[in-house]
Amino acid sequence: MQIKFEKYQGTGNDFILIDNRNMETQLSAAQIKFLCDRRFGIGADGLMLLELEPGVDFKMVYFNSDGNESSMCGNGGRCISAFAHKLGIIQDKAKFIAIDGVHEAIIYLGGVSLKMADVKNIQSGENFYYLNTGSPHYVKFVYDVKHFNVFEEGKKIRTSEPYVAEGTNVNFIEKLDDTLFVRTYERGVEDETLSCGTGVTASALVASLSGVASGKNNCKITTLGGNLNVKFERVLENNFYNIWLEGPAEFVFEGSITLKEEIQ
Predict the structure, then answer these.
(1) Do 257 and 3 contact (CB within 8 A), yes or no?
(2) Does domain 123-247 have CATH number 3.30.70.330?
(3) With contact defined as beta carbons under 8 Å apart, do 139 and 130 qualify?
């Protein structure tokens, strides 16, 4: 099987994108895992299929690098919107459906702004918060996050009760000057990624709850892969709506790959 693809990245969170409007590409979990492998395949944090869906511009079907279909990916949503723009499916605005519902996107010079799902009922524990921004996220403030062992500590939390069954993404955050530094261990990738869109969103909302967001209705974010911004409106104590994730979504390269028959 020969597959044409394009590679995109959003603040270092990288994805394989396939135009599947003709529905000819059907991939197994093993094939997706191979394509995302950084040594034997193309290499990516995830893979997305762009498909058609009545009532919206397109459908986003997202798979983690372990080959399994996953929950919402914020940077992935921004990258697939840039991909749709490149294909001529959309102009400067998009409305698409993902696993967590309908999203809007705005294409601007240098980036994409993505409307995220509303967030309610944020849970708090001893020195951590837990919330769902399209994907589940555990958020914890730490000291010197730049040198923090994200892989080891993130894996401990991701595989602990009550999260081990379904898994959770784990974010370690620190307020630095006028920005929030965020590092994320992602389930499905089972490693730290350079950036995580839903994790950045979750961290920004936690920063607002904790009174350390850079603005009343927004939070500037620094990740290992670059800078993002999260805008939101907060009602009551911990309900957020009109949430927008803003930042770069860049084309990297395109190509084609022939999958070996033994990869099923």
Answers:
(1) yes
(2) no
(3) yes
- Sorted by where each begins, the domain ranges of the chain are 2-107+250-258, 123-247
Tell me whether residue 219 is exposed, middle or buried, using C-beta atoms within 10 angstroms of its C-beta: 0 to 12, 13 to 18, 19 or more: buried
| Residue from 135, 88, 106 nearest 247 by CA | 106
pLDDT bucket at 196, cuts 50 / 70 / 90: very high
Question: Which tokens in the block code for residue 94?
Answer: 């998009």
pTM for the whole structure: 0.96
Neighbouring C-beta atoms of residue 210, cutoff 10 Å: 15
Share of the chain above pLDDT 90, in %: 92
* Domain 123-247 in the same topology as domain 2-107+250-258: yes
Domain 2-107+250-258: CATH superfamily is Diaminopimelate Epimerase; Chain A, domain 1 (3.10.310.10)
Please indicate whether residue 219 is annotated as part of the active site.
no
Extract the tokens encoding 129.
Answer: 């918060």
Active-site pick, 36, 73, 79, 219: 73
Active-site position among 36, 79, 196, 219: 196
Three-state helix/strand/coil letters over 194-241: CCCHHHHHHHHHHHHHCCCCCCCCEEEEEECCEEEEEEEEEECCCEEE
**Does the annotation count 79 as an active-site position?**
no
Give the integer Cα–Cα distance in Å for 16 and 62: 10
Q: What is the pLDDT of residue 215?
A: 86
Greatest Cα pair distance, the chain, in angstroms, is 55
